[in-house]
Every structure is written in C-alpha cells, then in structure tokens.
Amino acid sequence: MPTRTPENLSITPRDRRFGRGAGTAHWWMNGDPVATAFYNALSATFPKGEAYFVESVRAFREGTPPRLAAEIKAFTTQEVMHSREHVQFNRRALDAGYDLSPLEQRVELRLAVTRARPPIVNLAATMCLEHFTAILAHQLLKDPRHLAGADPECAALWRWHSIEEIEHKGVAYDTWLHATRDWSRGKRWKVKAKVMLFVTRNFIVDRTGGVIELLRQDGITGPKAWARVLWHAWVRPGMLRKIFSAWAAFFLPGFHPWNHDDRALIARAEAAAEPAPAI
C-alpha cells in the first residue's frame, strides 16, 4: 500500500530523563487541580498502554518494507522511553499524594478485553489510539496555554513526549495499511471506523472517570467536579473541543496521519527547549 509518510521523515528517539531526584507539587499544573488531574490521569495510562502499542505493531512487522521496518524499530524505542519516563512521573504523583491504582486497573481491564481479540483488531485499536495521542500532542505544542504555569520539568516531559508522538504518528497507520493490503477499501474503512468509535467512547469515558477519581481524592466531588471537568475539557482550555476536527478527519476518504505535515511544531518546540547561548 502507498504511504503519505514524508520520505525525509526522521523518527529520532531522544533519550531524555525528567524530574529525577526532585519532587512534584501536588497541583503541579499551575496550581489547578483539574488540569493536574487531566494530565495525571492521562499519564496513568501510558506505561501499560504504550507497551500494548509496541506489542500490537510488532506483531505485524514481519515482511514489512525495509523503510517501515526501520520506522517500527524507531517507534518501539521511542515508546519504551515514554513508558519509562511516565513510570517516573507517576511515582512522583504518588509521592505528591495521589493513588493512581484505580486508573491503572481500568487500563488493565480494557487491555485484557482487547487482547482477547484477533491481532488485527489490536493493531486497529493501536492505530486509533495513536491518532488520539498525535492530535493531542499537536494541540499541546501548538497552544502554549495548555502548559502555561506548569512545573518546568513536568512541562518539559509532556513537550518531549508530544514531539515524538507527532514524529511517529504514521507508523501504526502504515503498519495497518500493510497488514490489510489485500482488503478492499470498503472493508478497511468499515473496520477502522467501527474500532475508532469504540476506542473514542472508551477513551472519553475512562479518562473522564480518571479525572473525576483524582478530584475525589482532593475532596472535589459531585456536580462541582463534573462542571469543572467539562469546562476544562470542552471550553477552556478546551483540549477535546480543539482536537475534534482532527479526530473527525480520521473518517474521511483518503485519510492518512501525514496528510497534515506538522513537523514545524517539532522544530519550534525543540528550538524553545534549547538553552540560550552564553553571552
């Protein structure tokens, strides 16, 4: 199957470590319990989730073209390092007073159900979730307000992760195209659309539930908690509202993650992260 992944794309694992030997404030995201809970809830999914992504993609690496095989290898390396850093981030959240175990158990339950399905379904689920992480990453790098006032080490971790999610956003999709190369276009669209709707439902329900649980641990409950969560997600800063059109593009004929080349965001984020030259 032809790919729209840029020929000059370089998927470059960046071996970075964040927050070692340092504590993190309880509300590290600008003193905001809701924003802190949003990112903590997302991070709780990453160690097990990204291991699942790697497992699902690698199951189909045999027989892939050399370029895609190399991209799968680089994707694997990036995801392994993401898992490592989010394990550390989650430990700091634990030290700051949060219990992430209910959120982690929910991830384990979802993965157990999905792993019981055929490998091609797991690849489809990974492709859909990788689209989610890529469009979230795009929005996070595009709008500095999302991490404004955040703990510097935490913000650096999320920007680093976002850079690499954008960089490898086409790998699972290209692996899916290769694995389903003998399918009709209609069958391929029908399966990927059905899986995306299922994944989206679970993503919204589980991440919202995770945020609500962490707010409960902070003593913020009931209608007040729900109102604040919905406002944060859909109004201001409105991450879910802002990614909606990119999410919907997944269903269009001819979709490919690299139909929109957003490597300029990577360059801008890496330039901003470089230390200022000595005078």
TrEMBL record:
Pfam families: Metal_hydrol
UniProtKB keywords: Hydrolase
Gene Ontology molecular function: hydrolase activity
Entry keyword Hydrolase: yes
InterPro entries given in the database record: UCP07580
Domain of life, per lineage: Bacteria
Protein name (database record): Metal-dependent hydrolase
